[in-house]
Amino acid sequence: MQTFIIIVIGSAGLWLAYRLVVLCRGIEDLTAALKDESIFERESLPETTQQDRLSRLSAAVLNTATEGEMMRMSEMGRRKILDYLLNQIEDALFVVDEHYEVRFVNKAALRLFPAAQGQIGRPLIEICRDHHIDETVRLAVSANGKMQDQIKLVNSSETLLIEAGPIDPDYKIGSGAWLIIRDITERLQTEQIRKDFVANASHELRTPLSILNGYLEILDEDGDDSTISVMKKHTDRLTRIVEDMLTISKLESNQADESLLRMELFDISECINGTIERLQLLIDRHDTVISVKYPKEGLRGFYGDPYYWDQVFFNLVENALKQNARLGLKITVRVKRLEVNDRFEIDVIDNGVGIPAADLEGVFKRFYKVDKQHASGELKGTGLGLSIVKRAIEAHHGSISVTSQPGRKTCFHLSVPPPPLSVLSPV
Description:
The chain is of the alpha+beta class. It is 48% helix and 18% strand. It has a five-stranded antiparallel sheet with strand order 2-1-5-4-3, with helices on both faces. It has a five-stranded mixed sheet with strand order 7-9-10-12-11, with helices on one face. A two-stranded antiparallel ribbon has the order 6-8. The N and C termini lie far apart (126 Å). 22% of the residues are buried.
């Protein structure tokens, strides 16, 4: 009996050992098969992996591996599409990590900075070799917002526009920043050619127009000829256009240079009152009522170039008059000086026909005309007045916006910095 038990236990041990060997061999074969990326079908697996319970494990592992491979292939496809699209962008694109080491560059970046070829993982400053670019990216990250700068490459005529910003954490692709560099050399050259042409043409037209206008005035005094009057009216209009073009040319050519402006402290009420006096004939002709509200005396000290602020208020009031031909127009000029930061807030409001919403964005463009049937043929402007207003205000580091409710109200809102403490004194 004892011998029988020993034989049974021995047989069971041999059988278990055999099963263990087969199981281990099946696991090894399954592991080897999974390392071969071309095997993703159950029939392609070795027979040793398809025995009993191991077959269920093989099926589960194979399914998981297949799903993983499909996800990997899908991700590779998306990556190829993304790389293709980014390489079609004509602007240089960089992506850097939290250590400001380059992780991605597109083909445009390689053309602009050949040193970036094969330099993935190197610091941005080593590739671009310009501290302005590196500082712009770092400033964007520290400020957690977009930053822009314009630089001119050393020993080159190229001018670059740099824009950088932090990577949005919502995308969960890690910390870092993106950088876009655009070559704007050709655009700036074209813009300068246009500005030079406008300035030169305006200067050349001014003298013959003055002479022509002088002779027309003499002829008009000698007799009552309607033809001469019409010629003089249109000569005056041409002269006004030339003067406006010259003003815009000066403002545009000195956008970042305050040497054009003769800054001084003056009383804002005198400037506005002078504008109303100059337009009094037109105001009376249209039976217009103008009301002006100023800050109290001692808070009217306005710092700027009086010449350009005369033009700002003249164009705003004249624009309200010319765009509203009906009688009885009401215009309100309201000047406030904020207690919080001493900024000037100025509103020029009229209760005329208003500006359609579709035209609000274009009113400050040169020669832009709002198509209104109410406009009188006698009151055509040059189409440059509001452009001069916007550029003059921006030259003083201010801003202007417009809102309108057609048929009820139009409001031009100006916001201007306060006078510097070095020149501030009661006026």
